[in-house]
Amino acid sequence: MKKYIWPSIKLTLFMVLVLAVLYPALIAAVSKAAPGQGKGETVSVNGKVVGYENVGQRFTEDKYFNGRPSAVNYNAAGSGGSNKAASNPDYQKTVQERIDTFLAHNPGVKKEDIPAELVTASGSGLDPDLSPAAALIQVRRIAAVRHLSETKLMTLVSDHTERPLMGIAGPSKVNVLKLNVALDTLK
Amino acid sequence: MNSEITGVILTFIITLVIAFPLGKYIAKVFQGERTFTDFLNPVERFIFRICGIDPHKEMNWKQHMAALLSINLVWLIYAFFMLLFQSHLPLNPDGNPDMTPDLAFNTAISFLVNCNLQHYSGESGLTYFSQLFVITFLQFVSAATGVAAVAVLFRAFAEKTTEKLGNFFVFFTKTITRILLPLSIIMAIILVFNGTPASFDGKDSIVTMQGDSVQVSRGPAAGMIAIKHLGTNGGGWFGANSAHPLENPNYLTNMVEIIAQVILPMALIFAFGFFIRRRKLGYVIFGVMTIGMLTFMIPTLISEISGNPVLSHMGLKDITAMEGKEARIGVPASAYWQVMTTIISTGSVNSMHDSSMPLSGAMQMLGMMTNCFYGGKGVGLLNYFIFLIIAVFISGLMVGRTPEFMGRKVEAREMKIAAIIALFHPFLVLVGTALSAYFAAHHPQIAWSVQPSAWLNNPSNHGFSEMLYEYTSSSANNGSGFEGLADNNIFWNISTGIVMILGRFIPIIGPVAIAGILAKKKYIPESAGTLQTDTATFGIMTYAVIMIIAALAFFPALTLGPIAEYFQSF
Question: How does it sit in the membrane (chain A) (predicted)?
Fold first, then answer.
């Protein structure tokens, strides 16, 4: 083995230079041309950054479209899911509480109509999106709180719905942050 | 939902369309034939010259292994010390601390062996310097090591009787310059234009619309995420891996990432067929592996798409199994990923496996227990080769012929090696699980920094699955986890570290040794009495051997884990 150690060390040094210095530097340079300059795309209201487009944030107030439950409380300093198994009794209790909370905040919604994603935590804890159904079910509550017409809100949701990739692949979704920014501008 | 199924099928088709020509290209690269990347010839000559490597000097299998182990030893020492002292090194805008010695031991081995088991979270556990100089670096070189090892197999069966099997350093270097680096650059650029960060800025602090002060972790992630998939490594930049919305921003990037992790393992199978000029053998191997993939894929898709029955007990009509999954990805694409990432030894996740349905969990574990359907970078084919040799031997006995593979007699010595390798994986997994289950059951309050009673995030059978999954993932060098397990402590860091390093190098040395021994033997031309290995019949035989070995060895453990959970809760 001894005769291979020296070439190995030299090859290692060379590869570190290429793979850990030049390669990331190249990608960082290219990212300057990308939206967000490789720092993440931000969303601003009146010139003030209120969040990152791709990073979900906590929306629990009744006047906003609420996002999904999060195991890290939407603090993007970290990330992660609950890692709870469906068979776990504690987990079942948590889900039951979420259902009860949702019903309390959304009078008039029948329990069976609650979309599963609103009572289950996301994988990252930072899910920025909702399915259109999960946004639409909140329309009645928001309309009542904000004294807006439900039709207007439904149009808002459908305007913000992103179709599947090329119209054929993947789910439809709504970005919660962008939807709520637009919601604040509705009269 | 329909568009989500279409998405999965489309993903598989695109993978195939890329993998086939890529396989042809890889075969040419290793044969030294002309390719469109020949403009890199002077670069490679320069590398060999400054490193003192004679690219024309061919090695036998033992020299190959000596070179492979030497350079891996250099990387292990390098990585361990970098992680141990990372806070004293540059590029640490978030002020993250040094790793503890046991965590550095685990992490250095984990990335050295292409496993990428992570007992830390990237946001708080690593500096940008470590992410690039240790993690990204090892993700490239460990993948290239696997490919260089399988290239020995290619050479062993391409010629009649030979000891000369090419040069390890040449295979290794060309894998990086001709395959991994160009593909990574393309993929990283796709990622940055879809929102993955690539700049060196540290955490950002923001005040959200509801007035919460939060931080957002970032960093030069795109390049690492590209090689993490292309190299079937799987270790994430962020803690949540590819479920994180910056690591995997949309459905397009999700497709790109899952395609990227499958194309090279698939391409290597086609490359094998092209290289040894027996395309049909390549197609048969590909066919068996695809059937193996479907054996795990179909039950997983069904179990995930039919939803979580617990929600229906609570009175919901929509019971989509969304716990641990992301809205932009959805259930079918998450289920597809769960299977691909476990049969191939990537181990990146776009959903939390701990929260998947019990039967999906069983399929994920079976994927790692068989560990050869497509399989990891290079090592998938090497594992398959072991089962192939066993199938040759058993079929030979069944039909009363001398077992032969590719014109070489398979004799006692090769069979002993094959049998040891085939049993070594269950041995590592089951001994590890038994040991941890013993402590969890009988010494829950033992005076350790993290007591075994605090290890598990879920009770009962699922808790057992968390431990079984951890060792299966370590030994298969997969790296995914049932992440509820509290694994950053001395017991788990050391025990999985040992399992990972044994689970890497023994299953590389074994098949390469068999290939080397067979290559030296006298070539016997095919006759009417030769057992044909490139037929569908023999393919089914190999499939049966794989399933029987995996099922018999692991079935009792699976019964205690996910199978019992399934019958108890649903």
Answer: Single-pass membrane protein
